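From: lab user (bench 3)
To: helpdesk
Subject: output format question, protein + protoporphyrin IX containing FE

Hello, I'm new to running complex predictions and I'm not sure whether the block I got back is the full result or only part of it. Here's what I submitted:
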Amino acid sequence: MAQADQGQPARIYGAAARHMHWITAAAVIVMVPAGLAMTYRGDTLNIWDATTNAMYSAHKLFGFLVLWLVAGRLAYRLLKGAPPDEPTLTPLQKAGSHLVHWLLYGLLLVVPLLGWIGVSLYPSLTVFGLFDLPALTAPNQQRAEAVLEIHGKLAIAMALLACAHIGAALYHHFIRRDGVLRRMLPGLK
Ligand code: HEM
Ligand code: HEM
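Helpdesk reply: Thanks, we reran it on our side. This is the complete output you should expect:
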């Protein structure tokens, strides 16, 4: 949220938006390689032991939590808006960054949602054998495999887009030396 400062809208994201950004970013940065390691161990090496099962359970649990965090973050963003664009950006840079941000939001919702639909179809809803996630649909294993394949491909697409996004943030900070990264840094007032 842009905080008011002497009648002027703030140039940086509000504390809540920045916290939610960095929690989501950390979750995605950990979950994509962890998801690939988990399917490599299970599907490729065909090792289905307690460690593989724990990796799948942790993936389902954290992915499920990310979904709700992103839903909250998106609602907050839609209600409170964002600070005005960094003034030195060209119209093309503004349009490009908005497009990437909204694509990231879309993928942040669709990827975990497809994971949840996939494990509902399989069905493989248990988390550490302690409880089940709620089922979203009736079982259909063939469809589960198709949905989980799309889930994995879109997760990789999101990771690639996030790499471009991170590259852009670093370019702004270290090469253009403008205020773009500062807008999102934690610990600012
Ligand atoms: C932001 C959240 C998530 C990210 C970034 C993510 C990422 C990934 C990645 C990278 C893979 C490996 C794909 C591959 O090897 O081709 C994967 C697989 C998988 N994910 Fe997720 N995931 C998320 C959320 C979820 C959720 C919420 C669930 C279920 C509740 C879930 C269930 C699965 C399952 C079952 C697989 C294995 C699919 C297979 O064996 O082919 N994921 N995920
Ligand atoms: C080291 C990692 C990252 C850095 C340095 C970074 C940096 C930034 C910066 C500076 C902004 C504000 C841009 C602006 O105001 O024009 C931003 C916004 C955003 N970032 Fe990141 N980011 C990182 C990782 C991620 C990841 C992994 C995701 C999700 C997959 C993500 C999703 C978003 C979204 C959706 C916005 C738009 C926020 C809004 O306007 O509501 N970021 N990021």
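A quick orientation on your result: Residues 12-184 form a domain with the Fumarate Reductase Cytochrome B subunit fold (CATH 1.20.950). Let us know if anything else is unclear.
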